[in-house]
Specification:
- The chain has 11 helices and 7 strands.
- By secondary structure, the protein is an alpha/beta fold.
- The chain is globular and about 50 Å long.
- Bound molecules: cytidine-5'-diphosphate.
């Protein structure tokens, strides 16, 4: 019988433009992990609901649309890309202003979160099938709800002015303060540092410094196997 090599789960949570995506991608490359950006899943679902004309204030319509979602996953390098009914929502659409403005409203609805729960957990199966060593999953509730027993749980935060500057530099029209307010105050899976997670203030760190802060304990554990 061959023993399975250890499979690692790394959870990275934090507010908008806190440095999650940049560091998750580098960690995925460095440690051969599947990169899963759950924000892109909430964005994809939001774009789909908007395409169908479903409004976030129409609860029965949201519940029905959430039940009808049909998920799949394709890989783009080391990143999981969500398919909805076999179609990938283009990146320009999921990062559009209208999605920025609506995503936190849909993400606050329990039926939407429930629809994405099993799909997010199922990304470990995708990672195993494709022989990754684990997953690095970023979002708002990964260390609290999706994988509370993850091998590593990080929470990134930064000064709001610095985060607004970063998002502007990326060229996006984004109301990150409003999204953070909605994400932190919702009843289901609010954005918060999970108990026991390592909280890191990225305000005065370069992207490379954030990566090294996260990578150090991971490298130590990986080398122990
Ligand atoms: O890129 P940025 O950090 O600005 O946001 P994102 O990670 O793309 O997430 C977009 C939105 O999805 C967030 O503002 C949340 O409303 C929602 N989201 C969530 O509720 N739970 C997650 N695990 C990930 C995203």
């Amino acid at each position: 019988m061959t023993a399975h090599p250890p499979f690692f789960i790394i959870a990275i949570d934090g507010g908008a433009a806190s440095g999650k995506s940049t560091s998750s991608k580098v960690l995925a490359d460095r440690f051969n992990l599947l990169h899963v950006d759950t924000g892109s899943f909430y964005r994809g679902v939001t774009a789909e609901f908007l395409r169908l004309g479903v409004s976030a204030v129409d609860s029965p319509a949201v519940v029905a649309a959430a039940h009808a979602l049909h998920f799949g996953t394709r890989l783009h390098r080391r990143s999981a890309v969500m398919e909805l009914g076999g179609r990938v929502v283009p990146d320009a659409e999921i990062r559009s202003r209208v999605v920025n403005e609506n995503v936190s409203h849909f993400a606050a609805i329990p039926a939407v979160r429930a629809a994405l729960l099993a799909y997010q957990r199922g990304q470990t199966g995708v990672a195993r099938t494709h022989h990754f060593r684990g997953v690095v999953m970023e979002g708002r509730d990964i260390g609290s709800v999706i994988f509370p027993d993850a091998d590593f749980r990080f929470f990134l935060h930064a000064d709001p002015v610095e985060r607004a500057r970063r998002r502007e530099k990326e060229g996006g029209h984004d109301s990150i303060a409003e999204r953070d307010r909605l994400d932190s105050t919702r009843k289901t899976a609010p954005l918060a540092c999970p108990v026991g997670a390592l909280s890191i203030d990225t305000t005065h760190l370069t992207p490379a410094q954030v990566v090294e802060t996260l990578a150090a304990p991971i490298a130590a554990k990986f080398s122990r196997g």
